Amino acid sequence: MNNPSGQPSGLIYESDFLRIRDILTVLFKHQRVIIAIFLFFTILSLLVPIKMTPIYQAEASLMVKIGREHIYNSEVGDQSQKVAFDLQALIAPEIEILTTRDLRLRVLEELGVGTIYPDILENEFLTNSSMETAQGRFQKNLIVTQSGKSNVINLTFEHHDPQVAARALNLLSELWKEKHLAIFSNPQASFLEEQVEVFRKNLEQSETTLQDFKQEHEISSISDQRKLLLDQRQNFDSRWKFNEDEIQGSGSKIHSLRRQLKDIPEYIPMWTEKEQKDQIVDSTRQELLDLRRKEHHLLGKYEENSRMVTDIREEIALIQAYINEQEAQIKDDQVTTIRNPVYQDLQLELLNTESELTSLKTKGGVIQRQIEEIDRQIARLNRLEKQFDGLQREVDKDRENVKIYVGKLEMANVSRQMDDKQIANVSVIQAASIPSAPIKPRKLLIFALGMALGMLSGMAWAFVSELLKTSYIRPEQAALEQGIPVLASISYKS
Questions:
Q1: What is the rounded distance in angstroms from the CA atom of residue 87 to the CA atom of residue 427?
Q2: Is residue 66 domain-shared with residue 170, that is, in the same domain?
Q3: 475-492 tens-digit pLDDT
Q4: For 380-408, how does the pLDDT look when each residue is reduced to its tens digit (9 = 90+)?
Q5: Domain that holds residue 21
Q6: N or C, where is the chain less crowded by C-beta within 10 Å?
Q7: Domain assignment of residue 471, yes or no
């Protein structure tokens, strides 16, 4: 049915056109064209992969382990080894090595550009431009990635020849190990050998200088000799103090003896008859004194003319007469004297003490001179100590340097031997194998995309063609636009 009003189809401005019934009407109306377009794209999706060159992908896995390459050794001084574990810092350099330009060029040179990319060398010789083109294509075909957050690196290489893809990837892995060893190798053995020889000569020279210094000054060990001298000085000091105490004691003793000699007579009378008489007189006088006391006592009780008083007075008179007689005889006797033995003993002891004091003073002087000599030796050691310590430090420093560099030389030799035997802390987990099936073209994907594209293209063509027409699809649309009821509809097929 034509649109008499000349208005555009309701397809572009009526919402009911989008109903499912309208869509199905359009699709069934143009089903032949839709099927034709669908079949065209479907057949095309089957033919295109046949004409495309198949691409194979070889895969390999590499592992990077922490080893001697990642251990920091100070060139001088501290011998402690430091390992800074950072997985990203561990993997990033290895990925950089794998993607370096010179590694790609070596693979191309060893396998041959004509083997990997024969189309580049077609009708021409190998030139710099063709080599640059080949290495650029190699870089594009090579993919290097880290496997998650592990220390594993995944390699993939795409090529139309599966054998070439596997060979190129395996060769790249081997060259990577060589490059790794070359970069992380430590070519210091010869330098360290020279340094060890230099420090050994320095050590011999410093030891000779120290030995000459010891012989010149008769020194074996400053600290031991000082300790021995200090012990000797302490011993002499104790002896000197003890000697001073004895000197002081002897001086006090001499002073005491001299005072005693002044109080004791040098001569004393001998024991004679006079002394005996004196003793008798003295005893008789004591008896006379006792009688006089008795007389005085009796007078207090009796009269003076009493018998007892007269008798005691007669006895007193008799004793008095005897005393007078004896005293008269004593005056006529001669007295002789002798040297006092006590005085002699004191004088002898004084002489011995004075002699001992002289000996103690002499001994004290000897001890004092010995102490002064020890003090001079200690002062001499103190003056030589700074020079001795400097020479000893020089020997210790040279010995430590020899020890450090010998250790570093041993480590360098071990590292060099490991490098010579191609021992590294990187390994190939899985070598590249020849892929059995190509990854490109993906026939199923292309076929599915062709079917989808054909279906969508056919449907699009049907709706666009209806959009460009000025007719109605269904009678209801004409009735709705004209505002008149539909009494009957007649289908038309051209």
A1: 16
A2: yes
A3: 666 666 667 777 766 666
A4: 888 888 888 888 888 888 888 888 877 77
A5: 15-52+441-482
A6: C
A7: yes
